[in-house]
Each structure stands twice: as C-alpha cells, then as structure tokens.
Amino acid sequence: MKRDVDMRTTKYLLILLIVLVPVGSSFAPEEPHEKSYTEIVVKGNNDFAFEVYSKLADRQEGNMFLSPYSISTALAMTYAGARGRTETQMADVLHFPTTVSAKPPSGSTGDQKQFHSTFGTIVKALNARGNKGAYELTVANALWGQKGYGFLREFLELIEASYGGKLNEVDFRSAVESARQRINAWVEKKTKGKIKDLIVKGLLSRMTRLVLTNAIYFKGNWASQFQEEETRNAPFTLLDGEKIDAPMMNQTGEFKYMETEDFQGLELPYIDEELSMIIFLPKKFDGLGELEKTLTCENLSEWMAKLRKQKVIVSIPKFKMTSEFELAEVLMSMGMTDAFSGSADFSGMNGKRDLFISLVIHKAYVDVNEEGTEAAAATAVIINVTAVRPEPTPVFRADHPFVFVIRDNQSGSILFIGRVMNPKA
C-alpha cells in the first residue's frame, strides 16, 4: 500500500492529535430515542476499545496502558471529513453507527450530524462533571490548520459545535518547528505536564495541513483511600514465574466483587463513585493471556452485573507507567485501509481528495497510588493528503499480572484500559 509522501502528485499532511486522561462522563436526562442512540455510541466505542487493546496486546510484551476513548475521539473528528468508502471503513472499524433516522449530511453515507452531536454531548458532560470540584477533569479540543488553507466552513463549524475545537492557524509551510512546539505546549498544558513532546521532530512537515487535538485530564482520589502505613513490599510473580518485590497497598473494606473459576473482579470507585477502576485478576499467575482473550463488551457487561458489594481484603501494587503506540498498522489490519492510502477520501475537510492519514500516534500515562489515580493520554493521527459471594471474606491479592479498565459508571464508557505485568518496570 502506497503511504509515502514522496508521491508525484501534490500531497498534504493532516495530523490528528488527541490527549486523554482517565475521566468519567455523565448525561442529562434524555428522551428515549436520544438515550438509545447515546447507548449505541457508547457500546460502539467500548467494542472498539477491546478490539484495539487485543491487537496491541498481541503485538507487544510488558505493561501497557492506553485510552481507547482518546483514540475514538481523535478519529471521530477525522471521520467528520471522511466520505465514500473511507467513511464506511472508518465507521466499521470504529463501530460508529451509520443507520439512523436523521437525514445524513451532503456527501456522507451515514448520519454524521447526529453522531457528532451525540459524541459532543458526552464531551460536554465530562467538562460539566469536572467543574463540580470532586475531582479534576478537563476536556479540550482544538484544530491547528495551515493559515490560508481552504478548509470547508461546514467541517470547521461541525468540529467546533460538537467538540468545541476551534481553528488555530499555524504555518507548517515555513515554520513547521514553531507549529510543532506550539501544539506540544498545548498538549502538555492540558495534561498538567504529564504528556510531553507528543509530536517529535520529523513527524510534521511542509506537507502538513491540519492537526486535530483532543486533551483530557483526570485526577481523582479513591472513595476509600489506602493508608500509606499499610503499604509494604511483598512478592509479585511475573509471567515467567520469577518473583520480585513490589510495593503493595492494603486495606479491608466494602467493595463490589465477583469471581469465576478462572478470575476475580474488583471495583475500586473514585470519590462520588461516578468513575471506577475495575481490576480483573486471573487466578493463575500466568493466566493473563487467556483472560485477555475473553475481553469483550458483552463479557464486561455480564461481569459488571455480577459484582456484589461485600467485605473484601484488598492488596494491589502501586504502579506508574507511560505507553506509546503508532496505530496506523493496527487500524489498517482492522480494515481501515483506504484512509492510509492514496485512495483516501477526506473531501469533507477541504472539498478535495488529496488528504490521507500517515500516522496515528498515541501516548498515555497513569499513576496509581494510595490516594487515587492520575492519568493522561495523547493520540496523534497524521493524515497525509495524497493523495456470588463466597462465605469466608474474599482475598483480592493482585500479586501477579492483571488487566484493568477505568470506566464511567453513568454512561458505561471505557475511558482507559491497561495491564500490569511488572509494577516496577
């Protein structure tokens, strides 16, 4: 597949950058149809979350943390400019709904207008929740476009109305380094310094025409905090059976808990219980691979329904990690091929078919400690123009590899997903 920028025809580069940190979202009461459509959008995002996690888990070893919600948001803004087969492929891979009652916008195969309005409602709800003060939560979007370039007014208005992403003019043609530094500074500011240098030198060029950015920052304390004096080093068994010493946080309290023959599940809510971390722990120290194969939206719903509040003895490691991914090949392997080639059709952005995605870069950070969780993530999509409760008190001791999600309890949205293979790595 032709992805070089050294093509004979004139090409431009479109970069989509998104930054995210664990957050929760809430919704105002809706009419039955609107709520149903919101649930469709949320389920689609969650389906994509598990699929992209599975692809990445198969490709790399060790700790991993990402925000599929960030990736979905970045690509949703890109999707607003997609048309024809490019739009269809993106909707299929990202699980965006395409058949609804409202009239689709001109040239679009699906109902993008309703989709972006609904997605935007989720974003606005996150900000509304974050303003309450129980925890830190901010969501921001922005467009960084080549000054004087002819972006369609309809595209810019849709992004601003739905995502609050206003156009900031920069000069990629003659001041690409200045543009890169300006965008990176925005990312760093919106993530409270946790995501730095998302776009490294060489990713932007004189061919770049647009960078779409989304930043979300979340910092929340546990509803039931761990006491530092109860944290002590204890053995953590790695996948190969080797044992290392890791700082394990300990407490006994009332938590939602479930277990099957193969794994345990524990929900640790943050203050106000609007947002939770759910940890799934295999019963075998080397059972993570088998558990990961069962991660689906349907199974998560089934497991969440089995959680029951009860007294649990909890021991989990402190951990901190940063993960970075280039997602173009993963997305292409999932079926989103045209968007990364000369066949791409992003004419909804500029009225031409000269843009294509060259890179999708994602970077995420998480810090889990006695007080709570702080996390951030960033995704850069570079589009080139081409062309049952047990009777003794259950013990949840996460002393071997496990997977976790950070989930909004009102909408059911999966905001972050990760695995801990080695808490000291």
Quick recap:
This protein is α+β, with helices and mostly antiparallel strands and 425 residues long.
Annotated CATH homologous superfamily of the largest domain: Antithrombin, subunit I, domain 2
What CATH architecture of the largest domain would you give?
Answer: 2-Layer Sandwich
CATH class of the largest domain: Alpha Beta
**Anisotropy-based shape:** elongated
For the biggest sheet, the summary is: 9 strands, mixed
Structural class: alpha+beta
* Straight-line N-to-C gap: 36 Å
- And the CATH topology of the largest domain? Antithrombin, Chain I, domain 2
- Give the low-confidence spans: 1-16, 18-35, 100-109, 386-390
Task: Give the C-alpha Rg.
Answer: 22 Å
Number of strands: 16
- Compressed to H and E, one letter per element, the order equals EHEHHHEHEHEEEEEHHEEHHEEEEE
Strand coverage percent: 25-35%
Figure out the total of helices.
10
Mean pLDDT: 83
Structural summary, described in words:
28% of the residues lie in helices and 33% in strands. With 425 residues, the protein is an alpha+beta fold. It folds into two domains: 13-221 and 321-385, 2-Layer Sandwich (Antithrombin, Chain I, domain 2), CATH 3.30.497; 228-318 and 389-420, Alpha-1-antitrypsin, domain 1 (Roll), CATH 2.30.39.10. Strands 2, 6, 7, 8, 9, 10, 14, 15 and 16 form a nine-stranded mixed sheet that branches. Strands 1, 3, 4, 5, 11, 12 and 13 form a seven-stranded mixed sheet that branches. Strand 6 and strand 7 form a beta hairpin. Helix 4 runs parallel beside helix 5 (153-163). The longest helix is centred in the first third of the chain and has 28 residues, at 32-59. The protein is elongated.
